[in-house]
Design brief:
The protein is 57% helix and 0% strand. The protein is mostly helical. Helix 2 crosses helix 6. The longest helix has 17 residues, at 89-105.
């Protein structure tokens, strides 16, 4: 008598309602957690410049790029993060990458 579907359905609504209230700091946390800062720096421009990514790719393309860079460029230096960065963290990271690009353009 496990009622996973019902609980999952009602539980899934709560995080969805909270996501718009999540600050960009959460995206920054994800950026630091997966060591993006090591190659892209604090402002998105270091060994790998991602400051123009928000202009080149839409959200779904950015997610796909982060998960599997070799699908976009030959011999990428960036490792694939498919199965490493969670589905909950990925949109936060994409938003943060876009924010870095917009801040660099100022």
């Amino acid at each position: 008598p496990l009622d996973h579907d019902t609980k999952k359905g009602s539980g899934a609504q709560e995080p969805t309602e909270e996501v718009p209230n999540v600050s960009k700091q959460s995206g920054k946390d994800v950026y630091q957690k997966y060591a993006c800062v090591g190659c892209h720096g604090d402002k998105g421009k270091a060994l790998g410049d991602l400051t123009m990514a928000y202009q080149k790719y839409d959200d779904s393309q950015l997610k796909a790029y982060i998960q599997n860079p070799s699908a976009f460029i030959v011999a990428p230096q960036m490792p694939p993060f498919l199965g490493i960065i969670s589905d909950d963290e990925l949109p936060l990271l994409v938003d943060y990458v876009k924010l870095l690009g917009k801040n660099a353009a100022k």
